[in-house]
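I have been asked to look over a protein record a colleague put together. What it holds is a sequence and that sequence's fold in token form. Please read both lines and tell me whether the tokens look consistent with the sequence. I do not need a full report, just your reasoning and any doubts. This is what I was given:
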Amino acid sequence: MSEIEVLHLSKTFSQKGMTVEALKDINLTIEQGDIYGIIGMSGAGKSTLVRCLNFLETPTEGRILVEGEDLGQLSEKELRAKRTRIAMIFQSFNLLMQKSVLDNVAFPLRLAGVKKSEARKKAKEFLQVVGLEEKAKAYPAQLSGGQQQRVAIARALASDPRILLCDEATSALDPQTTAQILELLSRINRDYGITIVVITHQMAVIREICNKVAIIENGILVENGAVRDIFDNPRSRAARELILRDRPEADIRVDPISELKSQRMIRIVFSENSSYEPVIANVILKFNTAVNIMRADTRNVGGTAVGEMILGLPEDEHLQVDIINYLKECRLNVEDVNPADY
């Protein structure tokens, strides 16, 4: 079942007499239970898109259907009710600094008319879910950034949403804390069946937690699909650039061979269907030529270890073609890399 459908969505802003097209004819479908990533560089329009999903921003054109209902056709009262099904967390946490952790989580319940005792009881339950029950009496200023984000997640869960929108929710956190928050979101998706939409500029976040991804560039949806498919075989320039920028600390870096001049660079990906033979050694033996390994690493893509190499090929163009065809025969995904991007 489709949880969210975005149909021909466009959003235009007027600023100082100028018209800015933030989004241009976006179409995508988010299924129930997805962890759906929306990624793009700064200014791509991804945050505008997520704010359109709950009508915090009203689209200039197009439709947003949530659980089959067209948000544009709802009255203000109906839209407010619908938004209780669509929770949101932000990079800046947006906690009430003068209220305790427990009261922060209970706050939306109290706004909804829930009795104080019942709201606090439910707040305690969700603090336990995020592992912060012992911080119930603390105030946000006494917490770390990761703990504050956990409070924000507990507050979002307290209203029993079916959809959770995360707008750069881990951008202000260090890598270790980011990994913990992503693990928590994954567990919430698994245990509660909540559909999660993750807005980020970091490909590492996408490959760690998401099953599907949409790539936005200059307000245009340039590519979308399963994360594994796009990682293995990106079709758009934006996807290739984001993947190349995604360089984990665990990268294995190999010093290029100084005397080898590489006019053509390629990226190869080892998936579970790839040959397990020593393909690079075989290339060297088969074609009697050196191949420059510019980079090699293994990454976690949706829970699966995937190997990647950036190779510099010899100058002979016919030899380049023969090597690429051989690698493809070994069931490897092969794509060209722009040396300037690398």
Remarks:
- The chain has eleven helices and 15 strands.
